[in-house]
Write a structure and sequence with these properties.
alpha+beta, about 35% helix, extended, Ribosomal_uL22_sf, ribosomal protein, Ribosomal_uL22, structural constituent of ribosome
């Protein structure tokens, strides 16, 4: 083992006579202490060891200069936030400099041609809309009047992991029933898919109340009325704002992909089906209106079938030939 004045230790192998220098000493020591301000050769081997293990003092890095300050823009004159924003004089936009002979105002003709390329079609469209408003002496169509006076809510569920054959009977079971009665039946049903239907019915009821405002007139007193449904069943309605299920149908969803592990390392690919449920919720006002429409139609049909005696008339002319 030899120690040089530069502070590096060199091991000498006695058998082969080859000088062995550690790799770390060659690779890192000169580079590591190249930027040191201390002269290692002048201090001898003691200063070399001190610099190797203790390290020499390095020059401090000066602080970098800060970035230049950014210039902030200002809002336009037509901005809706112009009243809340008070720009400074430096941020105020300068007036554009127009060349000689140019007008500072925009050409309204060009702007109008760009915004309204065909004014005649615009006039025809406005006339068409005005005629549509006063059609039938201002009376609204029946479908529009129903949409304005009655509420409804359509809710579609996510894909249930079941088949159409299993979910279809549950949809037919709840169709036409009150929403609370349908929830009660699904709660005590033995079907596995009934729990998914129960969760969807509760969600559909909440959506109908919050978004459509259905079922909010429960406190008002109303005279009970008995209606006849399409299937001939009589139903007594005490609150016209109660929510019931007008329609319920199922939707076939995409098929999944599962593996069925069999004997001897065989695997069969299965395609489990998925099905969705859609319910259309309405209020009892709709059921009362439909019953009244059916009764009025049946009354008109009975009135048309009545036979009335025609008044006697004198025969003005007679002919020897038949008139037919």
């Amino acid at each position: 083992m030899a120690l040089y004045t530069s502070g590096q230790m060199v091991r000498i192998v006695a058998r082969t006579g080859v000088t062995f220098v550690p790799r770390r000493t060659i690779a890192s020591t000169p580079t590591r202490y190249a930027d040191s301000n201390v002269d290692n050769s002048s201090g001898g081997w003691l200063s070399g060891l001190k610099n190797m293990f203790g390290g020499a003092s390095r020059a401090k890095v000066t602080q970098r200069p800060s970035a230049p300050k950014k210039d902030e823009g200002s809002l336009g004159a037509s901005s809706i936030f112009g009243s809340d924003f008070q720009p400074t004089k430096a941020q105020m936009p300068s007036k554009p400099q127009h060349a000689a002979g140019e007008s500072s105002e925009r050409d309204q003709g060009r702007i109008q041609r760009g915004l309204l390329p065909d004014p005649n079609s615009q006039l025809r469209w406005e006339r068409k809309m005005a005629v549509r408003e006063i059609r039938k002496r201002g009376r609204l169509p029946k479908q529009v009047q129903i949409k304005r006076t009655e509420r409804e809510s359509l809710s579609k569920s996510h894909w249930f992991k079941t088949s159409v054959k299993k979910l279809g009977p549950l949809a037919r079971q709840i169709a036409g029933k009150n929403i609370d009665e349908a929830i009660l039946q699904m709660r005590f049903s033995k079907k596995k898919a009934a729990q998914d239907v129960l969760g969807h019915l509760e969600h559909a009821k909440n959506v109908a109340i919050v978004r459509s405002g259905m079922g909010l007139e429960a406190g008002k007193e109303a005279k009970p009325i008995t209606v006849i449904l399409k299937n001939g069943e009589r139903k007594k309605i005490s609150n016209p704002s109660d929510i019931y299920i007008q329609e319920a149908w199922v939707n076939r969803g995409p098929y999944g992909r599962e593996m069925d592990h069999r004997a001897r390392g065989q695997i069969n690919m299965m395609r489990p089906p998925t099905t969705g449920l859609s319910v259309l919720l309405k209020e009892e006002k709709t059921r009362i209106r439909e019953w009244e429409d059916r009764e009025a139609k049946a009354q008109r049909a009975r009135r048309d079938q009545l036979w009335t005696q025609l008044p006697d008339r004198k025969i003005p002319t007679q002919n020897q030939y038949y008139s037919w």
